[in-house]
Amino acid sequence: MGRRASPAEWNMIVEHLSLKDFRNYAEAELELRPGPNVLVGRNGQGKTNLAEAIAYLATLGSHRVSADAPLVLEGKDAAFIRARLAHGERRVTLELQVNKQGSNKARIGGSPVRTNELPRYAQVVLFAPEDLQIVRGDPSSRRRFADQLLVQRTPRMSAVLGDYDRTLRQRTALLKSARARGMKNAQLPTLDVWDDKLVALGSEIIDARARLAQDLASPVAEAYAAIAGEDHRPQLEWALSVRGGDPESSEVAQGGAATRSGATAELFRSALQERRAAELERGLTLVGPHRDDLLLRVRGLPVKGYASHGESWSVALALRLASAELLRAESPGGDPVLILDDVFAELDADRRARLAGVVAGYEQVLVTAAVAGDVPEALRANAVRIEAGRVLGTLSDHPLERPEAMSPAAPAPAGDDARSADGDA
């Protein structure tokens, strides 16, 4: 953990971020430097929104909401994210128009591109308190974690996942219509056509997820030991609906995707046939990667329901740090940008120090914090004050708010929740 890229690698650095009508920012300009960068501001001022915008370019999604509409400033139709990246001596500008309705638009170096081209240039790994839901939440949280990493690892998977979701919706709509009209299997020849599409796309997703779990196994174990200071033997394994169980219904079937060429597709098609009657009865697609779950264990026990609070945090951190290690090992661009969003306030002193030691070796780290003193001193360089959707400048420009003068007990503005529901954290 914490390897620095060699001089031969051209590490990616975010040099400048511009926002327009994004979350609570009518306009924002933020300069960033190599090494640690800290955004300090009370809850609800907008520091997380800056981190969210950078991460969106890499994952094509928010870590807080599943839809794009909340990202757009109230009363506006679109938000705009513009980032200048340095890849060694080369500079490239990424631009994204996030539309409240309809498809988003993207540009690279001023030229229009498909949005799924952006992750080829932007490598970012973000950890936030919401990530505790990866280990404690429902299966959709773990699927989302895996799929966002798949997109970063192989950008074309964005199109595969999107096509699968559209096929799934259309197939499920057919099942619901058939259920409402009392139609039987023999009366639905078009269902076989949708099965073919679902199997082709879904099998690719299942196999890609299985490879991802295998590749994460060692980095997760190393990261967990580095954060927790103990080896609790963390494990990852997919529970697959194509193997006969339904993780969404607590019928857990374990085992990764089959390795023989075409075997996953055969399993998928067979499972669809076996569940056809139940699908028609319920009007739902009951088999596929949309119903799978990533099982996480420590000490041989499921993290969900058995792990302590500290163990759960360590697993969540380990998943993100392992993701960063995987991306840095595979990318010619070296280190991804690491973003730690309001994380240190959630950790005890020992885990804070351990985490700071692990991430200090990355080429660029962005930390957000309500109180600068929560951030270990080794990461406290280049601290910038954020207030009411404005980037005010470095803390040295505001002597009353320098880290040593800030009190953890300082009250937040009236009505300001810890992580406000509208996302302006």
Automatic annotation (TrEMBL):
Low complexity: bias regions: 405-415
Residues covered by the AAA+ ATPase domain: 33-398
Bias (Basic and acidic residues): 416-425
Cross-referenced SMART domains: AAA
Predominant place of localization: cytoplasm
Pfam families xref list: SMC_N
Binding site for ATP: G41, R42, N43, G44, Q45, G46, K47, T48
Keywords: ATP-binding, Cytoplasm, DNA damage, DNA repair, DNA replication, DNA-binding, Nucleotide-binding, SOS response
Lineage: superkingdom: Bacteria
Region annotation (Disordered) ranges: 397-425
Compartmental location: Cytoplasm
Family membership: Belongs to the RecF family.
Function text: The RecF protein is involved in DNA metabolism; it is required for DNA replication and normal SOS inducibility. RecF binds preferentially to single-stranded, linear DNA. It also seems to bind ATP.
Protein name (database record): DNA replication and repair protein RecF
Organism: Microbacterium marinilacus
High-level lineage: Bacteria, Bacillati, Actinomycetota, Actinomycetes, Micrococcales
